[in-house]
Write the structure tokens for this entry.
Amino acid sequence: MGENVELRGPPANPEADHEFIADCCRYQEGIATEQAIKAKYRFATIRARDICRFGPNSIRDRESVIKMAEVLVRRGWLVPMKTHRRDTKRWRIAIGPD
């Protein structure tokens, strides 16, 4: 696979681009470390709409996005946030399970 890369810079805003999803893929493949992901997305939030727009084609429908997010909530990676609309879903990207 190669060496672990270090992610630098200010926390990215996943609402503006697909960088968060790409970084999660890098972590899954062993390219980025867990510490780098935790440090980069410490206070970021993401909406279901953003995942539908910028995510892989296989999860671009709302039901798949919500199911995927529920798994990440159970594993400690996302924290649900209250929204002003009941049809909007938003999560805070947590520092991780531990």
About this structure: The chain has four helices and three strands. Strands lie at 45-47, 78-81, 90-93.
